Amino acid sequence: MNLNEWTPICRVDEIPVLGARRVARPRGMDVAVFRNGEDQVFALLDRCPHKGGPLSQGIVFGTSVACPLHNQTIGLDDGCAKAPDEGCTPRFSCRVEAGQVFLDPVELATVALELEAPKAGPCK
Ligand code: FES
Protein backbone atom coordinates (compact mmCIF):
# COMPACT_ATOMS: atom_id res chain seq x y z
CA MET A 1 0.00 0.00 0.00
CA ASN A 2 1.27 3.45 -0.93
CA LEU A 3 2.26 5.61 2.04
CA ASN A 4 -0.26 8.31 1.14
CA GLU A 5 -3.02 5.70 1.57
CA TRP A 6 -2.08 5.27 5.25
CA THR A 7 -3.63 7.39 8.00
CA PRO A 8 -1.18 9.69 9.82
CA ILE A 9 -1.68 9.38 13.59
CA CYS A 10 1.01 11.30 15.41
CA ARG A 11 4.76 11.61 15.64
CA VAL A 12 6.74 8.93 17.47
CA ASP A 13 7.92 11.50 20.00
CA GLU A 14 4.28 12.30 20.86
CA ILE A 15 3.92 8.79 22.32
CA PRO A 16 5.32 8.48 25.86
CA VAL A 17 8.40 6.26 26.01
CA LEU A 18 7.35 2.88 27.52
CA GLY A 19 3.75 4.00 27.24
CA ALA A 20 1.00 4.48 24.70
CA ARG A 21 -1.31 6.92 23.01
CA ARG A 22 -4.98 6.13 22.40
CA VAL A 23 -6.48 6.56 18.95
CA ALA A 24 -10.27 6.93 18.94
CA ARG A 25 -12.34 5.29 16.20
CA PRO A 26 -15.84 6.51 15.37
CA ARG A 27 -17.32 3.01 15.14
CA GLY A 28 -15.21 0.90 17.44
CA MET A 29 -12.99 0.65 20.45
CA ASP A 30 -9.87 2.76 20.69
CA VAL A 31 -6.55 1.56 19.36
CA ALA A 32 -3.49 1.82 21.62
CA VAL A 33 -0.27 2.86 19.89
CA PHE A 34 2.75 1.89 21.99
CA ARG A 35 6.36 3.04 21.99
CA ASN A 36 9.11 0.97 23.55
CA GLY A 37 12.59 1.88 24.77
CA GLU A 38 14.05 1.42 21.27
CA ASP A 39 11.44 3.73 19.73
CA GLN A 40 9.70 0.79 18.07
CA VAL A 41 5.98 1.43 17.62
CA PHE A 42 3.16 -1.16 17.85
CA ALA A 43 -0.61 -0.94 17.69
CA LEU A 44 -3.16 -3.13 19.45
CA LEU A 45 -6.82 -2.86 20.31
CA ASP A 46 -6.94 -1.08 23.68
CA ARG A 47 -8.47 -4.12 25.34
CA CYS A 48 -6.66 -6.84 27.22
CA PRO A 49 -7.55 -10.38 26.08
CA HIS A 50 -8.03 -11.36 29.74
CA LYS A 51 -10.85 -9.13 31.02
CA GLY A 52 -10.67 -6.11 28.77
CA GLY A 53 -8.23 -3.95 30.73
CA PRO A 54 -6.98 -0.78 29.00
CA LEU A 55 -3.60 -1.84 27.66
CA SER A 56 -2.79 1.79 26.84
CA GLN A 57 -2.48 2.34 30.62
CA GLY A 58 0.07 -0.46 30.99
CA ILE A 59 3.83 -0.32 31.25
CA VAL A 60 5.82 -1.29 28.16
CA PHE A 61 8.96 -3.40 28.54
CA GLY A 62 10.88 -4.89 25.63
CA THR A 63 8.25 -5.87 23.09
CA SER A 64 5.52 -6.46 25.67
CA VAL A 65 3.07 -4.51 27.80
CA ALA A 66 1.97 -5.38 31.34
CA CYS A 67 -1.80 -5.00 31.65
CA PRO A 68 -2.66 -2.53 34.42
CA LEU A 69 -5.50 -4.67 35.78
CA HIS A 70 -4.03 -8.10 36.57
CA ASN A 71 -0.50 -7.72 35.22
CA GLN A 72 -0.69 -10.28 32.42
CA THR A 73 2.06 -9.79 29.84
CA ILE A 74 0.78 -9.12 26.33
CA GLY A 75 3.09 -9.28 23.31
CA LEU A 76 3.08 -6.03 21.36
CA ASP A 77 3.99 -7.75 18.09
CA ASP A 78 1.19 -10.33 18.17
CA GLY A 79 -1.28 -9.10 20.81
CA CYS A 80 -1.12 -12.46 22.61
CA ALA A 81 -0.78 -13.16 26.31
CA LYS A 82 2.44 -14.89 27.30
CA ALA A 83 2.15 -18.43 28.67
CA PRO A 84 0.73 -19.68 30.93
CA ASP A 85 -1.90 -17.01 30.21
CA GLU A 86 -3.96 -17.31 27.06
CA GLY A 87 -5.82 -15.18 24.55
CA CYS A 88 -4.98 -12.53 22.00
CA THR A 89 -6.21 -9.04 21.29
CA PRO A 90 -6.42 -7.77 17.70
CA ARG A 91 -3.31 -6.07 16.36
CA PHE A 92 -3.15 -3.27 13.82
CA SER A 93 -0.60 -2.70 11.09
CA CYS A 94 1.63 0.18 11.91
CA ARG A 95 4.20 2.04 9.86
CA VAL A 96 6.75 4.70 10.80
CA GLU A 97 8.27 7.03 8.20
CA ALA A 98 10.50 9.98 9.10
CA GLY A 99 9.26 9.94 12.68
CA GLN A 100 5.58 9.92 11.69
CA VAL A 101 3.31 7.04 12.75
CA PHE A 102 0.71 5.73 10.30
CA LEU A 103 -2.08 3.16 10.68
CA ASP A 104 -3.97 1.29 7.99
CA PRO A 105 -7.29 3.11 7.37
CA VAL A 106 -9.04 -0.07 6.27
CA GLU A 107 -8.10 -1.83 9.51
CA LEU A 108 -9.13 1.21 11.55
CA ALA A 109 -12.54 1.11 9.89
CA THR A 110 -13.09 -2.64 10.07
CA VAL A 111 -11.05 -4.55 12.70
CA ALA A 112 -12.72 -5.64 15.93
CA LEU A 113 -15.82 -3.44 15.57
CA GLU A 114 -17.84 -6.19 17.23
CA LEU A 115 -15.84 -5.98 20.46
CA GLU A 116 -16.96 -3.68 23.25
CA ALA A 117 -15.22 -2.39 26.31
CA PRO A 118 -16.30 -4.36 29.36
CA LYS A 119 -18.84 -2.66 31.56
CA ALA A 120 -17.61 -1.62 34.97
CA GLY A 121 -19.27 -3.58 37.71
CA PRO A 122 -18.80 -5.95 40.62
CA CYS A 123 -16.64 -9.02 40.19
CA LYS A 124 -18.46 -12.33 39.93
S1 FES B 1 -7.66 -7.54 32.21
FE1 FES B 1 -5.59 -7.56 31.64
S2 FES B 1 -4.66 -8.95 32.97
FE2 FES B 1 -6.76 -9.01 33.50
Automatic annotation (TrEMBL):
One of its GO terms (biological process) is nitrate assimilation. The keyword Glycoprotein does not apply. The keyword Iron applies. GO terms for molecular function: 2 iron, 2 sulfur cluster binding; metal ion binding; nitrite reductase [NAD(P)H] activity. Keywords: 2Fe-2S, Iron, Iron-sulfur, Metal-binding, Nitrate assimilation, Oxidoreductase. Coiled coil: none annotated. It holds the Pfam family Rieske. Residues 6-103 form the Rieske domain. PANTHER family: 3-PHENYLPROPIONATE_CINNAMIC ACID DIOXYGENASE FERREDOXIN SUBUNIT, FERREDOXIN-RELATED. NCBIfam families: nirD_assim_sml (TIGR02378). This is Nitrite reductase small subunit NirD. It comes from Ramlibacter agri.
